[in-house]
Amino acid sequence: MIRFDDLALFVRTAALGSFSNAAREADLLPGQVSAAIQRLERELDIRLFARSTRSLRLTAQGEEYLPYAKQALVTLQEGRERLRGEADSLQGLLQITAPSDLGRNVLLPWITAFREAHPKLSVRLFLSDQLTDMFRDPVEIAIRYGRADNASYVALPLASDNRRVLVASPAYLQRHGRPRTLNELAAHHCLLYLVGGRIYDKWVFPVAGELRQVAVAGSLVCDDADVARRWAIEGQGIAYKSWLDVCADVRAGRLEVLMPGQPGEAAPLNLICTHRKQFFPAIRQLHEVLKERVSGLTALFPT
Fold first, then answer.
1. 3-class SS at 166?
2. 176: exposed, middle or buried (Cβ count in 10 Å: 0-12, 13-18, 19+)
3. Is residue 18 a contact partner of residue 56, using CB atoms and an 8 Å limit?
4. How far is the C-alpha of 277 from the C-alpha of 272, rounded, in Å?
5. CATH 3.40.190.10, domain 164-258, yes or no
6. What is the C-alpha to C-alpha distance for residues 106 and 98, in angstroms, rounded to an integer?
7. How far apart are CA 127 and CA 220, in angstroms?
8. Which residue spans of the chain are classified as CATH 3.40.190.10?
9. Distance between CA 74 and CA 124 in Å, rounded?
10. In 3-state terms, what secondary structure has residue 156?
11. Helix, strand or coil, per DSSP, at residue 221
C-alpha cells in the first residue's frame, strides 16, 4: 500500500533535487527520505530516481509518474479540507508568499486577523519581490502584481483596476521642483528597485492608446520595493509604485501623487494558486476577505 507521506516526500525530492534538501525541509534524516522513496519504488515496481554519488535525477518513469503523484496529493488534501468544514473550523497550514512592501505594510494585519479568526489555522508568510515557483517551493498561494499568463496557475482577482502612481515627498518637491511631464523625469532622482531580478529603470505609461517607456536614473537602488517607498518618504527621490503600496502614505500627506492626469501602468493584484487549490476553504475564504479589504483602498484612487 502506498503511504501518503512517501508520496509527499517523492514530490518534494523531485522538486528540490536531493534527499538531503527534502529531509531538511521535512525535519528528517536523509536516510529516512531514501527509505521512503525505496518503499514507494517497491510498491510501484519501478525506479523513480537515477542515483549516483554526485547527482539525483528522475528516471523517465519517474518523470511520467510525478504529475499523477502531485494530483493525488492535491486531491487528498482537498478531501481532508472539505471534511474539516468550511467556516468555523479552518485548520492546517496555509503558506503564503507576497511582495515585500504590500505584504509588510498592507496585507500583514489582514492576514494576522484572518488567522486569529481561525485559531486552528497556521500561517507561514514569505515576503519577497522575487517570483516564486509554486511547484517547487512549499507555498499554497502567491499574492502578486501583474497578469498570470501561465496556464498552470489560477489567478483569483483582488484588484483588477489597480495602477502604479508617481509619488514624492513634499520635502523633495520643495527642493527639486515638481515634474510636469514624463520627459522631465530624466532630470530627477528616481528610486529604483529590482523587478524579476532586473533593475526597473524603464518606467511604462499608457499614452494615446500605446505604452510608452521612459528611461529614468537614480543613485539609490534596492532589491526590496519597500525600501524604495521609504526612501521616497525620506525625500530621496521619486518612486513609481503600486497605488496599494503608497495609498496610506498619500492619505497621510507623507507622499504626493505627481501628474495625476497621466495614467500609470496597470498593476492588477491577484491571488494565485496552482490548479484546483482555489477550492480549499482556507484559500477561498482568505481571497474573499482580502478582496473586500483591497476594494476599500482602490476606491481611494486619485482621479
1. strand
2. middle
3. yes
4. 9
5. yes
6. 11
7. 21
8. 88-158+268-298, 164-258
9. 19
10. strand
11. strand
Per-residue tens of pLDDT for the chain, all 303 residues? 888 888 888 888 888 888 888 888 888 888 898 898 899 889 889 999 988 777 888 999 989 998 888 888 877 776 766 665 554 567 788 889 999 999 999 999 999 999 999 988 999 998 987 765 555 566 778 899 987 665 567 888 999 999 999 999 999 999 999 999 999 999 999 999 988 778 999 999 999 889 999 999 999 999 999 999 999 999 999 999 999 999 999 999 999 999 999 999 999 999 988 765 555 788 889 999 999 999 989 888 876
Report DSSP state, residue 208.
T
What predicted TM-score, i.e. pTM, was given to this entire model?
Answer: 0.70
Q: How many CB atoms lie within 10 A of CB 109?
A: 10
Q: Dihedral angle at the C-alpha atoms of 64, 69, 70, 71, nearest 10 degrees?
A: 100
Residue type, 89: S
**CATH number belonging to the domain at 88-158+268-298, selected among 3.30.930.10, 3.40.190.10, 3.40.50.300, 2.60.40.10:** 3.40.190.10
Q: Which CA distances in Å does 50 have to 7, 60, 254?
A: 17, 9, 58
CA distances from 160 to 139, 210, 284 (A): 23, 19, 18
Amino acid, single-letter form, for residue 36: A
Closest CA to 293 of 98, 91, 111, 89: 111
- Cα–Cα distance measured from residue 71 to residue 219, given in angstroms and rounded to the nearest whole number: 48
Burial 136-165 (b: 16+ CB within 10 A, else e): eebbbbbbbbbebeeeebbbbebbeebbbb
